[in-house]
Structure formats: structure tokens, C-alpha cells
């Protein structure tokens, strides 16, 4: 069953459930389908660094989430249809820690790949038994090298069907960025970079990656000096034209690897203690110009604001997106309870062919709804704000089907009302329905 706009019906995963789907704004119609009920006492199903929570391949869409008792649940449907088929797997995760999220991707042959339950802990990874199958094999190693202290697993699918896999090896404030590549022809993994970004035992890089239309890999990151999020500082950048083997600065000069704090290209200097968030979002326009969405507190203010840092005309520029008025301080250890989400950035073409920006977010000032900001032209940044839902979604952060967006320009978000206590504390919130919200930008 599918629900459009604010038509209400119980979740099909549990016919006796009285919880309704999120109603959507009449002026920005979206539709939602239900996957089932999931763990919601932490934000583990709804943290932004799930790459991906949803993914598509050859007309099928797949999803992964933690069920009410921490069991890994997979789901699939044919794109355009409403009904989801679900499979409760034998794999379990530590749902009390929101870092232990699930990341999902399909390779060029249609096999699902899943990484989960990683927070400075041994790699947990498995692959589907058949193309398109929801049945997973046992947990296995990738390369077997430096896989004992894994955090932030992230998949990207290349145009040839190979997969890239990023992860941090080491602890917060003391870790290195690793990069593997999966080869469907041999069904094996190989190491591309052994410590692409080296914290030198004194810091770690918190990254986000994106592929452009030409297949160039783009990477941005913040540095963190200690486990305290308040020690986040600066935005840096690198790109690779060959799947991660060679890395360049934005001016074309070549990095000597590994990249360190001394050799990195700094695209925006932001000092420690300014509320700079980590693990955000980046995208690349049709010209190959990268754009990073994040938030920090401007100098002379106590109110964090959303910003874009983007390359235009051969130089890096900063644009403020929001005009928030509610102050908060970002500091401490573990997963934080924060009144705004990290932003998801999406780029497409406007009517005149210029780059159009969409930023998906959640903010206490908008009732914790799923919200969207759109700018038709970064050369004249005027932002329009709308809410895609009428109800709040707790501590939710946006994750989407990145393959579907790149291929068809369709936004499919995984949405669940979740709690998140500060420093991994559990909220008193029972299992909540997990939804896919579908929205298409106007032409």
C-alpha cells in the first residue's frame, strides 16, 4: 500500500499498528511507503553517514535497517511499486551505539554488499548469496588488512559496476582513512590506498565522498584533534580521476600520499571550538565543480548556521544558507543530541541549465520536520524553504538512494522518527515505522 500527501493508513508491516505515515505538504506532494518497524531508541537507522540506506539496481530498490530487537532487516521492491518484500537476516548489531549503522550497496552484477556494527571494532561485512537476493552469506573479511578498528564504512558504485569502500581505521582523533575496491568479475576486494589520509597518530579525518558525471572521485573532510567533537576544524579537499589511485588538489597539483595536515588543500579555515560538524555531505555539478554542505557557528555569533563551500570560477567560495536564531554548543564525546541534523546536499540542473542546489535537513526551528532548502542559482543565492512532512521526525538525519538520484534525479529518503540521547544514552521510544519518502524536484 502507498499513501500520498496526508492520506493516513496504518503501516502494512503491522496491520494492528495505529502509527500513521508522515503526512506530506500539499504544496510539495511526496508519497511514502512502509518497510516495517525498526529500533528507534537511538538514531542508528537515521544517521547521515549511512552510505547507503537505500540503493537501486536494474529497476529494483533495496533497503536495510535494524529491526525492533537489533536484527538486520533487508527489503526490496520494484521501483514504482508500493509493496516491499522484507527479510529478517541472522545478523545482529549493537543498536545502543548509533555509530554501528548499516551501509548497503549493490555491485554491477546485482549482489548486495552490507557493512554494519562498526565503531572502532572489527569489520563486519557480508555479501548476498545471489544477484538481487535478500539472503546474505556469513560475515567475512575484505582484504584482511587493518580491519580490526573500523568506523564509518561507506560504499560507492563506479560506472563499471565495481565498488569502492571507505572506512576509518583507528580511533576518533587518531585514525587513518582506508580505501578498498571490489571487482565483480573475480568477486574479490583489493586495497587501493593504505592510509589515504594519515592522522599521524595525532588526529583523524572525518570524510564525505562523491562521484561526478565523468567518474571523478571527490573527497572532503574535517580534521579532529581529540575524541571531543569541539576539536573539529577546517575543511579540506582532494579528487581522484582514476578510482582512488592518484589524488589531486583542485588546482590539478598532485598529492604525495598519504595526505597529512601539512599537505592538505584547505578550502575553508574554521578554528576549533566553532561548532563545525563532521560527516556531512558533498555533491558535484555538471562542470565538475564540487560543493560541500555543512554547519558551524560564525565568528561573533552563538548560533550555528548551514553553509555551502563550493568551487566557482577556479576559486573556493562560501555561502550561508540558513538564518537560524536558536543557539547551541557542540562539544563532548559520542553521538550527540543535536537540535539540527547534518545536511544532505543534492545538485541538478535548473531551467536555464545552471546548477540548482537542494539541501535536505531537520531543524528544531521547523518542528523537527523533514525540510528542504532550494537555490536556483549559486551566483545569486536566494533560498526557498519548505517542509516535506508535517510531523516531526525526532533526531532523524537524511539518507537517500544516491544511485537513483544520480541516474534519474529522483529523491528517495529513508525516514523514521528516532530518539538520540546525548553520549549514546537511550531514549524512551518504542519501535517506529521505517518509511521511504519519495519526492521529485519540479522541472
From TrEMBL:
Transmembrane segments: none annotated. Residues 1-27 are annotated as: Disordered. InterPro entries: Sialidase_sf (IPR036278). Pfam families: BNR_4. Gene3D superfamilies: 2.120.10.10. This is BNR repeat-containing family member. The lineage of its organism: Bacteria, Pseudomonadati, Thermodesulfobacteriota, Desulfarculia, Desulfarculales.
